[in-house]
Amino acid sequence: MKFWRRYWYLIGGVLFVLLTFFMGLWGCGNLPRIQTILIFSWMAMLVHQTEEYAFPGGMPSITNMAAFREKEAPYKYPFHAQQCFICNVFLCYTFYILAICFPDVIWLGASQVLCVLVQLGAHALLINFSLKDIYNPGLGSTLFLQAPVAIYYIWYVVTRLPEKAGQLWFGIPGAFAAMIICFIAPVFLMKNRKNNYPFAEEEMYGYKKDKVLEIYHDSKPSILQKVGIK
């Protein structure tokens, strides 16, 4: 478990490669199209996670040091390795796999693919604002993988399954609820400065380490601190 927690995002990258071969050699020609789209959506999420934590990586420092500007325990508060592992593997994988296993439940599939709406808000707006930049780890896969898959899913349901198209609207609140349950709520429910799950030095930093440290050393309180999230 310790190894998995430390390298979950690289293991996810290997899973992406395996799914690529599976879909290319068998899945695309044998699985229902709606299920195929949802598998590609999960694959896009695997790339997204690898971009956030490995290539170029740096999401832990961007979150704790640039966004929250945590001074006392930036390597493990409020975002720590155990919480990150649980959110991105157990909760996120379960949510995506459920939609794949029940492709005819259109509102569930729509909730999966429309998570891109939250990702765009977080990466294109909030995180870029914190970094004062036009890119951050995760934005590329959101724009060029997750968003196109979501658009294609919506198009497919509207044109090929018009009798179920009304369920797409339920995907919007479903996506926000899923992101809250899988990612946002655990950060605040599991935060603890005395936890024993700091991020390793090599996974803490990635994209623009110097810029993150410059923001971190700025003594001004962050927007999150001003609204009482400490």
TrEMBL record:
Stretches that traverse the bilayer: 7-26, 79-99, 105-126, 138-156, 168-189
Pfam family, any one: HXXEE
Keywords, sorted A to Z: Membrane, Transmembrane, Transmembrane helix
Protein name: HXXEE domain-containing protein
